């Protein structure tokens, strides 16, 4: 049956291709950032020939990158992602506050959100000190280690149970891997309204974090101050608690949010 003259069919054909392209792109995740053609075939259920054809075209258009037999999301996508996040109200509110925190403390101030079971840095005001922690926008970090992860888990019981159900990989000698101990520390962070850690994610580095909430009292993300423990011993972190919690409350109010505690 000929369909060349059917305008409805002509409209549907591109959408079918787009849905297949989306299936391929959706197959990638933070826990599985690269795959082979065979793995993409298994993940999507699309015919091998379709996966090969679409991947070749997506690589040609720089929407996917290929290195050997490994395929991953293309760097060009980052430009589109940056455009999408640039207009987000949360980042527009958070960015000047991060600069205020950085200017008041001299240390790096950052904002993290939960993405697919990890915490991701989505904004940062970098310190001017030469000695600094290795943090940047887009940095992906496991949730259990550090003050930020503790705060993000403290107001997310379901995610906490998921994290505590599996083995916790140590990032340093100070990483808390005992789930019973970690559970208590997460509960303490919720009771305190903030968390302070040293050396759990990165040796000789400290962090202080506080939550930001949305209108439904859910955690939008966490504000954090981080730097070398040499400049940020626990006594100094404790002196900055009121500053950081106050700034987190300022962002929460500006977003129309409310604390659930």
Automatic annotation (TrEMBL):
The entry lists its GO molecular-function terms as: DNA binding; DNA-binding transcription factor activity
Q: Which InterPro entries match?
A: GAF-like_dom_sf, HTH_MetabolicPath_Reg, Tscrpt_reg_IclR_C, Tscrpt_reg_IclR_N, WH-like_DNA-bd_sf, WH_DNA-bd_sf
A Gene Ontology annotation in the biological process aspect, one of them, is: negative regulation of DNA-templated transcription
Ranges of residues in domain HTH iclR-type: 15-75
The record's listing under PROSITE patterns reads:
HTH_ICLR, ICLR_ED
Q: Which UniProt keywords apply?
A: DNA-binding, Transcription, Transcription regulation
Task: Give the top-rank taxon of the lineage listed in the UniProt record for this protein.
Answer: Bacteria
Pfam family membership, one: HTH_IclR
**Would the keyword Hydrolase be found if you checked this record's keyword annotation?**
no
Q: Enumerate the SMART domains for this protein.
A: HTH_ICLR
List, for all copies, the residue spans of the domain called IclR-ED: 76-257
PANTHER family assigned to the protein according to its UniProt record, in alphabetical order: HELIX-TURN-HELIX TRANSCRIPTIONAL REGULATOR, ICLR FAMILY (PTHR30136), TRANSCRIPTIONAL REGULATORY PROTEIN (PTHR30136:SF39)
Protein name stated in the entry = Putative IclR family transcriptional regulator
Q: Say which species the protein is native to.
A: Rhodococcus wratislaviensis NBRC 100605
């Amino acid at each position: 049956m000929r369909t060349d003259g059917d305008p409805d069919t002509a409209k549907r054909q591109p959408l079918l291709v787009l849905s297949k392209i989306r299936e391929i792109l959706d197959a990638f995740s933070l826990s599985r950032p690269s795959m082979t053609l065979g793995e993409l075939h298994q993940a999507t259920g699309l015919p091998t020939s379709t996966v090969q054809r679409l991947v070749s075209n997506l690589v040609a258009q720089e929407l996917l990158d290929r290195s050997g037999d490994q395929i991953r999301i293309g760097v060009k996508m980052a430009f589109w992602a940056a455009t999408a996040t640039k207009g987000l109200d949360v980042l527009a509110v958070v960015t000047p506050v991060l600069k205020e925190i950085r200017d008041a403390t001299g240390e790096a101030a950052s904002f993290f959100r939960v993405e697919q079971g990890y915490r991701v840095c989505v904004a940062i005001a970098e310190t001017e000190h030469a000695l600094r922690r290795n943090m940047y926008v887009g940095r992906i970090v496991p949730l259990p280690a550090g003050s930020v992860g503790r705060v993000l888990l403290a107001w997310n019981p379901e995610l906490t149970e998921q994290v505590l159900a599996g083995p916790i990989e140590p990032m340093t000698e100070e990483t808390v891997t005992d789930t019973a101990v970690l559970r208590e520390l997460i509960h303490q962070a919720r009771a305190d309204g903030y968390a302070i850690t040293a050396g759990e994610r990165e040796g000789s580095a400290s962090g202080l974090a506080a939550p930001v909430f949305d209108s439904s009292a859910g955690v939008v993300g966490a504000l954090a101050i981080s730097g070398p423990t040499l400049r940020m011993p626990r006594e100094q972190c404790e002196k900055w608690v009121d500053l950081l919690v106050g700034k987190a409350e300022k962002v929460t109010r500006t977003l129309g949010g409310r604390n659930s505690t």
